[in-house]
Amino acid sequence: MPLAGQVVGNGVRLVRPVGRGSHSLVYFAVARDGQPCAVKIFPAHLSGYADREFDHAHDLYHPRLVRVMDRAVVDEQPALISTLARGEVLFRRYAQRPAVYAERRAFLLTLVHLLDALGYLHERGLVHRDIKPENILVEEDGSAKLVDFDLSGPAFETFDAPLRMGTAAFQSPEAARGEPLGPESDLYGVGILLGWGIHGALPDPDEPYPHTLDPLAPLHLSMTRAERAERPNDAARVRAELLRLAGLPY
Fold first, then answer.
1. Each residue of 100-126: pLDDT tens digit?
2. CATH topology assigned to domain 88-246
3. Confidence (pTM)
4. Is residue 230 pLDDT above 70, yes or no?
5. Would you say 145 is a known binding-site residue?
């Protein structure tokens, strides 16, 4: 049975698919009152991810985060209903590269908004654990929202066995080792995005980035150090340093 056109939850009508999360299909939908929203549908065997995301995200209220509002069931599959984040995923939005030179103010605003979102999460004792372009939706002016909380959880949460979380290109060394993750691991992902913005490409272990005189380069290097204890772990301080180095007043 086609999903488009189905009504789920409290009168939410599915309209069309708009993307995929780490473990889900995301639909643009319209609530009973006409307001646009998103419905994130998980395969039945991944219901634990839906439960986890709802448990950790349903009471988050911040302008740079989507808000998970309710649970639903779609064709016997668990689903979450959330506010709609507008814009394009980060890499698609910044098709002209390096983004720091093509659209410096907009790209740095995106990072500022990402740091705002992470600062809020970290203050609440949570880490996102999957900072990557697909989880950052960016509008034309650079305004951004962080989405997809199905890997999120308490900082330094432990599991019965090492669990490697995140996406390889943006994964901190400790995440790749399956260690418990803290704020510095989320900020490592932001550092990778900053390096991409400066150089126009993701890092290559066999070919280090060329030297650059961009004033943001030292911040990128500090955020992506291999040793977690040597990296910043405070999103608000990183935000302030980013703006100081960039000479911007946001």
1. 999 999 999 999 999 999 999 999 999
2. Transferase(Phosphotransferase); domain 1 (1.10.510)
3. 0.94
4. yes
5. no
Read off the pLDDT of residues 139-192 as tens digits, 9 standing for 90 and up: 999 999 999 998 999 999 998 878 888 889 999 999 999 999 999 999 999 999
Domain boundaries, the chain: 7-82, 88-246
Q: Which long-range contacts (CB under 8 A, 24 or more apart) does 236-243 make?
A: 236/115, 236/119, 238/115, 238/187, 238/190, 239/112, 239/115, 239/116, 239/119, 242/108, 242/111, 242/112, 242/115, 242/194, 242/216, 243/108, 243/112
- CATH number of the 7-82 domain: 3.30.200.20
Residue 130 annotated among the catalytic residues of the structure: yes
Residue among 130, 148, 150, 214 flagged as catalytic: 130
